[in-house]
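Q: Hi! First time asking for a complex rather than a single chain. Here are the components, and I think there are two in total. Is that enough to go on?
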Amino acid sequence: MSLIALALILLALFTFVAGQIFLKHAMESTTTSGHEKSGVVAQIGIGIFLMAVSFFITLGLLQRFDLSYLYPFQGLSSIIISLIAAVVLKEKLTWPLTIGVLLITAGVVLVSMS
Amino acid sequence: MRERPPGFGNPWLQLALSVLCVLASELLLKRGATEVADPNSAWSWTGINALESPLVWWAILLVVLSFASWLYVLKYVPLTIAFPLSRVVDVLVPISCWLFLGEIISIRRWCGIALVVIGLAVVAKPIARLEEKL
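A: Yes, that's all I need. Here is the structure of the assembled complex.
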């Protein structure tokens, strides 16, 4: 696997997760009072833009690689979410989470060597 | 959990539909993107040229449908249950690649896929809890 392919796979994952977080944040702020409407619209716009970027990068990758090769990498998005939660929400990384993260990483490494 | 409507509105049926839509969309995206692939084009990494394929548009429709039924599922089923169950798609995708797309999956790749699936099974519940907070 070339470095550019790895970079694009990771970029697709990060833009996807970032898009999710923007959408979630925007939707949640609509439930609290006193929010600014323009801010919410902007956040939804950013979220949709990021997810569109992720979608097209994935399409570009699908033209070059097997789906069974690319798909396991999506397991990494769970890891990215838990890391962001650990940093942003000051969550503690629990044992099941850490063990699962290691298993997923080992699996992705095996797939990427195949 | 709210009272669950019967028939087509059954959240478990909707969860299954959502998973099937995701699975079908992945396969259609792969077929469609490969169909119109032109690796020599300078823009090919952006994937935009894949929009030429009608299969890609069907896939987009399925993604929208799966999203709608997923939102419906979340109204009735807690994320800590729905999210781990939805990960069954991670098993279905490689199996379908092998069955329908004729991809040859080496032993090493099967082992990697298995490790990812086991890892996801272990993290699914903690992750779902995190996502409810996010």
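A: The two ends of chain B are 20 Å apart (CA to CA). Let me know if you'd like any chain examined more closely.
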